[in-house]
Design goal:
Elements: E1 2-3, E2 6-7, E3 12-14, E4 17-19, E5 24-25, E6 29-38, E7 41-48, E8 54-61, H1 71-78, E9 87-92, E10 96-102, E11 105-108, H2 109-115, H3 121-139, E12 146-147, E13 156-159, E14 162-165, E15 172-173, H4 192-195, H5 202-218, H6 226-235, H7 247-266, E16 273-278, H8 285-298, E17 303-307, H9 313-318, E18 324-326, E19 329-332, E20 335-338, E21 354-358, H10 363-368, E22 373-378, H11 385-395, E23 401-405, H12 410-420, E24 424-426, H13 438-451, H14 461-469, E25 476-477
Parallel strand pairs: 16-21, 16-22, 17-20, 17-21, 22-23, 23-24
Antiparallel strand pairs: 1-2, 3-4, 5-6, 6-7, 7-8, 8-10, 9-10, 11-13, 11-25, 12-15, 13-14, 18-19, 19-20
Helix pairs in contact: 3-5, 3-7, 5-6, 6-7
């Protein structure tokens, strides 16, 4: 293929990776790499040579069964929404069309759900609500609604400023005479009327968002949202008279349920006491406890660390310097805590503070506490597994038990999870317990939200999304 006197070489696989020879499109866009492929199209990452900005270039071959997809350009040109790609230009040559679109960098919802253990009702609500807002905007277009038709987790992008919807290959104006687009879509997410050649409508998209909601609910570790599943099933009703008639009806039920859930959560008692213990010495129990205390204080939830073991590790840390003393509490940055003073010394803990009790290897002492959460730290090395199994057997029925393996050892965490029959989390390899890293922040945020509906720990979901994206692999964007 020749375009503007430049030969275009399509990507070829080399040792499992796609590569592409750089070329200049229309004298402006330098093609850098391939982003993805669809039916009859390839999406490339490009850079505008003069502006230095990135673009997504969708190449659509001029074949009898795919050239009709150029309709996407006209659809996108009608839609002016910050969460829908902006179209800049359309080019063509003898063999293909080239649609130049806005480039979105982030992770697909599909990738996020596969790799993140922190899929919570609040996260689901925010994602589905944003997707619903985008669809509602499309359905309000005049003179006829635009039907997206291909809603699935793969097409929902989680970006730094929120959710984006991509890939409008088969989006269609509901007033179109042609019906060919009804033959396309992902079967798992397609409404039954598409297979029956019935007329599509906004309810076709409502079916798909119900399917997306159901998929997200299935990604939770625990079934905490029976009524949300009821909403998902109503959206997927085969009988159109029973399915939601509009996105606004769907969103109204969704919002009413979540507000009711939050009101119920507000009635629960607040998080007051957390204990931590290790399966053997040098598991990092003190390190985790200090980090958790710092995290809560950083989030404006008063927390106090209390050393409840005989290691005197806290005194050793205090001697390294950097602390100020107020009464019996030592402060450093966001940290506030005390060493083990013994029975003869009484230190008043602030009334509303969350107590973080570090029991070291004293499992019996930790289990004697009536705590809201119990962190059990286990070793990641092969010779430490016997101690870990014994500790878990002893603490298996503790209220609010959270099993954690040290040094970010994911493979060992999976082994423990199979044996224990529950999720085992990874505390990252970390040098400074007083410094809040993105990895620790994401871990604590997810755990507190997952195990405790506490009004004192509100989640900034979009910021958490950005932090979560940073941990994921295999970026995909357009």
């Amino acid at each position: 293929m020749i375009y503007n006197n430049t030969e275009v070489l399509f990507p070829v696989k080399q040792e499992g990776a796609r590569t592409i020879q750089q070329f200049i499109l229309s004298g402006r866009y330098q093609i850098l790499s391939e982003l993805g492929r669809g039916s009859g199209s390839i999406v490339y990452l490009a850079r505008h040579q003069k502006l230095g900005e990135y673009r997504a270039v969708k190449l659509i071959l001029k074949q009898s069964d795919s050239a009709w997809k150029i309709r996407e350009a006209s659809i996108l040109n009608r839609l002016k929404h910050p969460q829908i790609p902006h179209i800049y230009d359309v080019e063509e040559d003898e063999e293909a069309y080239y649609i130049i679109e806005e480039y979105f960098e982030g992770e697909s919802l599909e990738a996020y759900m596969l790799q993140s253990p922190f899929i919570t009702p609040d996260f689901i609500y925010h994602i589905i609500s944003e997707v619903a807002d985008i669809l509602d905007y499309m359905h309000q277009q005049k003179p006829d609604p635009i039907i997206y038709q291909d809603l699935k987790a793969e097409h929902v992008m989680l970006c730094g400023d929120g959710v984006k919807l991509i890939d409008f290959d088969i989006a269609a104006d509901s007033g179109m005479k042609e019906s060919k687009f009804q033959n396309y879509g992902t079967p798992k997410f397609c409404a039954p009327e598409k297979a029956q050649d019935a007329v599509i409508s906004i309810q076709t998209d409502i079916y798909s968002i119900g399917k997306l909601l159901e998929e997200m609910l299935g990604a939770q570790e625990k079934d905490e949202s029976r009524y949300l599943m009821h909403i998902a099933k109503k959206a997927q009703s085969f009988d159109l008279t029973e399915r939601y008639a509009s996105i606004s009806e769907f969103r109204s039920d969704l919002t009413a349920h979540m507000q009711s859930e939050h009101n119920q959560q507000g009635k629960k008692h607040l998080l007051k006491k957390i204990v931590a213990a290790g399966s053997q010495p040098r598991m990092g129990t003190t390190h985790l406890s200090i980090s958790l205390t710092s995290y809560l204080n950083q989030k404006n939830s008063m927390a106090v660390y209390r050393e409840k073991n005989s290691s005197e590790m806290m005194r050793k840390i205090i001697r390294t310097g950097g602390f100020t003393k107020e009464g019996g509490l030592y402060r450093r940055g966001d940290f506030s805590g005390m060493p083990a003073y013994g029975d003869g010394v009484e230190v008043q803990v602030p009334k509303d503070a969350v107590e973080i009790l570090d029991y070291g290897t004293d499992l019996s002492g930790a289990l004697s506490e009536e705590a809201d959460l119990f962190f059990l730290l286990m070793g990641s090395r092969e010779w430490e597994t016997a101690y870990a199994h014994a500790a878990f057997a002893k603490a298996a029925h503790a209220a609010g038990l959270i099993c954690v393996v040290n040094y970010g050892a994911r493979q060992q965490a999976r082994r423990y999870a199979r044996i224990c029959g529950r999720t085992v989390y990874c505390f990252p390899l970390d040098q400074n317990p007083f410094l809040m890293t993105k990895e620790k922040e994401r871990l604590f945020e997810g755990l507190l939200e997952k195990y405790w509906n506490c009004g004192k720990h509100p989640r900034q979901w979009s910021n958490a999304l950005v932090r979560g994206i940073g941990k994921l692999c295999g970026k995909r964007a357009w």
